[in-house]
Structure prediction request, 301 residues.
Amino acid sequence: MGKKINKNLAPAADRPSLLLGAHLSIAGGVHKAIPRGEALGCTAIQIFTKNASQWKARPLAQEETRDFKLQRGRTGILVLAHDGYLINLGSPNSDLLLKSKTAFREEMDRAEELEIHYLIMHPGSHAGSGEEAGLKSVTLSLNTILTSTAGYRVSILIENTAGQGTALGYSFDHLRQIVQAATAPERIGICLDTCHAFAAGYDLSHASGYESVMEEIDTKIGLDHLKAMHLNDCKKGLGQRVDRHEHIGEGKLGLECFRAIMNDSRLNRVPKFIETPKTLNDQDMDPVNLSLLKSLISEAS
Prediction:
């Protein structure tokens, strides 16, 4: 696989040098998330485009879509979307699978309407059918969706998982299989979650381990497919397969992982988002976690 890092969709001159932010609420409308990001000093944000815990979504109002684009244009903030929690493209249950494919197609439609170019998704769960069957279901489902959305600008990013329960995608081999099977390879990539990787057994907590993980991603998938990152510390230990996010530097990963990421020139143009707990002792923690990440950047990087 090649060593080049991903290209951004806008010209480099129109992008800030550091693409860093948080997953933010869309309470009051999707357009409301952008000023929230602006107040935090974000240059990139991640959002849901609908209620993530419900199947159905109200259509995007014309005014809401217009205001979203105006706010994004005004601030220059890069916006990525994440799909809802209920979708499972690896399900062996035919009814749930059909419902999931329909819902994910709707997520694609909403991202396209908002001109959001990346939609992040979890591969899903095999729910007892076995990893091979589950991965086959995911790849077939994604290819159906990619075909039905030919001409869309939105691309799909597969997020690695912690491997909790029967979750798929905890292994880079899983991600490779999904990416390589895509019928539209130019519209599929990956999102690396640091907490999930550590929980799945990839030791990013020290410099040599971090570099080994990055080399494995490049060998198996290609760093050119790495389009986004979730920067989360991990509450549980290495390889425990428990998905519990922690504040930056307060979990089992520690600061060295995030120092390596923030100073890795290969990742300069990769948008990075925190999904850490929002509060601690009634204190708003997004500013704290983002400030800490920025403080890790070396002047020489």
